[in-house]
Amino acid sequence: MFGTPKTKDLTPHQVKAALDGHEILLIDVREPAEFAAERIHGALNFPLSTFDPGALPPAGDRMIIFQCGSGKRSATAIGHCQKAGHGIDSHLAGGIGAWKAAGLPTVTIDSESGAVLDRR
Predict the structure, then answer these.
(1) 116 class by beta-carbon count within 10 Å (0-12 exposed, 13-18 middle, 19+ buried)
(2) Does the CA dihedral 6-12-14-18 come out positive or negative?
(3) Strands 63-67 and 116-119, sheet pairing
(4) How far apart are CA 97 and CA 12, in angstroms?
(5) What is the CATH number of domain 8-119?
(6) Which of 78, 76, 67 lies closest to 100 in space, CA to CA?
(7) Residues of the chain with pLDDT under 70
(8) What pLDDT does 116 receive?
(9) Which residues belong to the active site?
């Protein structure tokens, strides 16, 4: 039986600094509707419901970091990757909820106009 994945919990500010420095590829494993409603700028959506570690985009010299709503699904994605032999082990602890609590910006879509809005 596959045990609990070994994960590195990154803080929102660590992830933000790494995104700004182009050091990571941030993968959001929430479902498409969640991602469309609000996301971290620069994140790519690979939903956990259809997650395939082999389908992840090449990260080049960047590290892949997972993110979800609270940290549970991103830890599950890490487990899938480790089971498949990938060395991915880091995620945004607390997910987008922790990101927003830290006062960091998100991107949303205005439901009336369809405009993309940066939320700070």
Answers:
(1) exposed
(2) positive
(3) unpaired
(4) 10
(5) 3.40.250.10
(6) 67
(7) 1-5, 120
(8) 77
(9) 68
Tell me the helix, strand and coil percentages in the chain, rounded to 5: 35, 25, 45
Per-residue tokens: 75: 């830890």
Structure tokens at 42: 């620069």
**Which pair of structure tokens corresponds to residue 9?**
């919990």
pLDDT tens for each residue of 55-76: 999 999 999 999 999 999 999 9
SS3 per-residue string spanning 38-63: EECCCCEECCHHHCCHHHCCCCCCCE
Nearest to 42 by CA among 27, 56, 32: 27
Amino acid at 88: I
Partnered with residue 65 across adjacent β-strands are 26, 90
Residue 119 carries which side chain, given as an amino acid letter?
R
Q: How do the domains of the chain map onto residue ranges? A: 8-119
Q: 11 is written with which tokens?
A: 């803080």
